[in-house]
Design goal:
This protein is α+β, with helices and mostly antiparallel strands. It is 30% helix and 26% strand. InterPro entries: YdhG-like.
């Protein structure tokens, strides 16, 4: 996971470190893996609740049960329950992200 985050280009590496730190601080027992070139976070035996992926202009966070979060993350998906958060440089609301992580970690995870 740390090698993946370190390899994220430019300012996105800092975003990756911040996301990872918030997730670990909010869910100390979090399980991590890199799948399909994206970091995944979940609860052992319960599935994955979040992942993120690097794009040219932003980092896209995927909440697998995002429609159950309050407030609902802004990015819509073709998948019924999935919601996205696109993070551009210097645009991470850490308090809101931590609140979503806490909520997401308490929901049934995605099995992949």
């Amino acid at each position: 996971m740390q090698a993946y985050i370190a390899a994220m280009p430019g300012w996105k590496s800092d975003v990756g470190r911040r996301l990872d730190a918030i997730i670990v601080r909010t869910v100390p027992s979090v399980h991590k893996a890199v799948k399909w070139n994206s970091p995944f976070y979940g609860i052992e035996g319960q599935g994955w609740f979040l992942s993120f992926h690097v794009f040219t202009r932003y980092v896209k966070v995927t909440f697998f049960r995002g429609t159950s979060l309050r407030p609902v993350p802004p990015g819509e998906s073709k998948h019924k329950e999935v919601r996205y958060l696109d993070i551009c440089e210097d645009q991470l609301d850490e308090a809101q992200f931590a609140a979503w992580v806490k909520q997401a970690s308490q929901l049934p995870g995605e099995r992949m």
